[in-house]
Sequence to fold (157 residues):
Amino acid sequence: MSKTLVAYFSASGVTAKLAKMLADTIGADLHEIQPEKPYTSADLDWMNKRSRSSVEMNDKSFRPAVANRVENMEQYNRVFIGFPIWWYVAPTIINSFLEQHDLIGKKVIPFATSGGSGMGNTNAELAASCKGSVLCEGKRFNTNVKATELKAWAEKF
Fold:
């Protein structure tokens, strides 16, 4: 029996809306990836080179701590992983989340929100964190995406 999880990190709520719509549309379980230390608006100021997000994204080995994990990851064979695009890639908290779970034999499918940039080097940056899984090509969605478009995309996996 195929079971699907939609896990997501959302700094401002935009990705959360998309993740909830995707989970509802495809009948998947939903898991919010929560940082141990929540991000403030100052942390997310990409114009400030010393903001938390800027510092994290400038050091690709940095792994922000995740406050929660999926206790029953073994039951899922497809994991859609959602996030906002930061600096043309997934935030490093996504690597933290992926690395804390056994993903062997699972399909990992990234999806993202962004003010305008595409997926960039996302898959290249996530590949090492997805050992033993099949990392599928991800997609960035606009905030006004329709459930029918999400469903058609998700059915490809």
